[in-house]
Amino acid sequence: MRIACISRGSYSRGKEVAETLAKKLGCPCISREELVEAATKAGIRVGKLETAVLKPHIFTERLALEKEHFQAFSARYLLERVVKDGDIVYHGRAGHLLLAGISHVLRVRVVADMEYRISHVMRQMNLSYEKAKRYIEAVREDHARWVHMYYGVTWDEAQQYDLILNLSQMSVENAAAALLTVSQLPDFQVTPASRRAIDNVLLASRVRVALAEREDTSGGQYTVSASDGAVSVVYPLYQAHAAEEIRAVAGGIEGVRSVACTQAQTNLLWVQERFEPGSEAFREVVSLANKWGAAVELLRLDAAGENCEGGAQLVTYGAAGQPKDVKTENNGGIEEDTSEAGGAADDGGLRDTLAELARMGRSGGGRAVRAAPHAAAEFVKPGVGYTLAVVGEVFLDKGQAARTRMSRELASLLHERLRVPVVTVQELKQRYLFNPKSIINLLLLSAVAAAIYAAVFLNQEAVLDFLHGTGAGSRIPAAVCVFAGVPLIAYIYGTVARLVLKLLRIE
What we know:
Strand order of the largest sheet: 12-11-13-10-9-14-15
Radius of gyration: 29 Å
């Protein structure tokens, strides 16, 4: 089951490389055009999505749902061909991003000499040199916008690929021969873990497509994951009325053994080293999740990550706490089986906490990261829809000063990557939850406000005489009182109103 995804620009000869490689492997060569045609026949408005890349103002909520449908359909289409044909070669725009989590996919980018591309366009489209160059640059920008809109990544970043082939001084035949040799390396052979990942991604995409195609469930943005037949569907608050239909649609797909549905309007990311379902921090995070109708996604930072010799490791867990995938970067070998790599190790209470969140209908899944502290934030994917990130107790093996400094650095990195507020567990309680301190503040400030208003209204005549006093000796104190008093009263009134709204769980 070798899978090669070749990313190509316009007139870069990537199609020729893909077709030659497929011929050498004796497997089907699937183009993006073929995939788009199949999606269009299935009723997906791919043309409208293409237009929305060029004109973002027309990107409506309906098109956002269409985008999710197209992504799931594309993943299902490719993986069903993998299951049917064994090996496949796909060429198009960053197709490997559709198959995230499948470790043995060979990710290739093909580039060609700019002068060759320009001359080809000049002949093909009868354009001048400058117009042909502008055309190629415009198409490249469109492709880059498409990839960024769909996957939140930069199309031509080198780290997106295992191999970049420059055809400036290499023939198509030799490029394909090189890829054939690379595809035979152990790193790109199917393993029990990657075969399980194929089954999981395929099952999740089948469920997501089925939800999009059913009229009563087509209006929701779902996050679907699967692990050995156990499917988790996170649905938005406005789809709560269709919860039973969602469960029925997912349960009707072949291969689904169980379905867990979680209602979520948004996601909270909780980062910690060790989790405890019965802890005060857990109760506070869940309280906020219930208040916002959010799912809680857990990210565990392994204390041993700083000394990780085999490369950064990521273990993904489903909503109910079952390990789904183990990914190790730069380890130079084949991945271990998921159950062995992810199941036996100490998970820091992650699985128990996820199981409790799932029981409460608030689980958004979780991940355990074993990496250097400065690299941990890179495992958090932007574009998920987080509203808030909470940093709990991390770097517990450090001294207090080092722990505080590293926690602040992590919070800064998360904020830069996610562009959402990042708070500590202590700040969470103070800023978002009504607590005993809030009660004291509410009572004191309410008493002060009541006293000020009572004093003013009961002594209106004296207050007016003071404010309208004549002479410099009277005007200056009156101006000082107004200058200092108005902001003070506004602050007290605003704080009381905010605390009352917090008490009533109104944002």
